[in-house]
C-alpha cells in the first residue's frame, strides 16, 4: 500500500468517526437502547431495534396509547402489536374465535376471515369510529387480494382486535396502501396494473391508479385521472376533501381533490429520497423512504435490460414532513446505510421517538424525534 493510499484511508476513517460523533452529539439514543444486551437485537450507532418483525412494511401509532401496529409483507407475517414502553412485539391476529366477529351486512362479498398462516399485509389505515374504538384497514395479499377490516378496542390497557370483514380487490389488481374518509369511503392504491412493471414507473411511466369503494357498493372501481408512475402510499386530509398519493417513480406527493380527481391539483417533490408510505401521526404528515442518489449503491436507481434495481444494496434513510402551506417536504431525520435495516418505508411518532418500518428488514427501527425545526442525523 502506497503512502498516498494509506493517507486516503486514514482520512476516510477519520471522517466516519466524525460522523458518528456528530450523531451522538445531535441526537443521543434513548437510554433503553444504549443499555440493550448484545443478544437482544443490539442497537447500532444510529438506530435501536425491535427484532423478529418480518418485513414491517407499514407502521402506525394508536393515538393516546403506548401501542403501535405494524404490518408484515411476507407469508404469515401478519399484524404485529408493539408495546413502545417495553419495546416488545407480538403477533396479534391469530384467528381465534374471540377475534372473529364478521359484519356480513357491511361486507357481504367477503368469503370469510383471513388465514393467519397466510396473512401477508402491506398498507395500514386507522380511523376512530367511537369512544375507544378504531377501524383498522389492512392491505392483504395472503390467500387473496383484499382490504381486510378489523376493529380495535382501546378501553382496556391492552388493545383488543376483532376481524369484521373484507372487500376483495378486482381480479388482477394488487393493492398497496389504503386510506379512508369519515363517510366510509375507502381508497386504495395499485402500484402496477397488469401489463406494467416496476421498471416502467422508475422510467416515469404511469403504472397504477387509486381505486375507490363506498359502503353499499359491490366492488372497488378505478378513479379516472389518478394514474401515476407507481401509485404507492395514500392518506386522506382532515378537510375530508383532499387525499395525497405517493408517485413513487417521481419521488413526489400528488394532491387530489376527492370530488374531482381528474389529475393532481398539486405536486410536491421530495428532496433526494423515495417516499413510500405517508401518514398523519401526532398531527404531522410524515413520509419515509430510502435515499434516491446513494453513492454507496452506485448513485441513482437504474433500469438495466428492462429490469429495475431491486434496491437490495443498503441505502441511506430519510423521514420527511409535508409542509402543505409552503408546498415542500422538510427532512426531519436521516441516516446512513444500515446493514440490518434497509428499505425504510414508513414512520410513526410515539412520544419523543420515531418508529420506522421496512419492506425488507426483519426488524423495526427506533430513532430520536428531533425538536420542531431541528434535523436529526
Automatic annotation (TrEMBL):
Keywords: Plasmid, Signal
Gene3D superfamilies given in the database record: TolB, C-terminal domain
Highest taxon listed in the record's lineage: Bacteria
PROSITE patterns on file: TAT
Record-linked InterPro entries: 6-blade_b-propeller_TolB-like (IPR011042), TAT_signal (IPR006311)
First and last residue of the signal peptide: 1-33
Protein name: SMP-30/Gluconolaconase/LRE-like region-containing protein
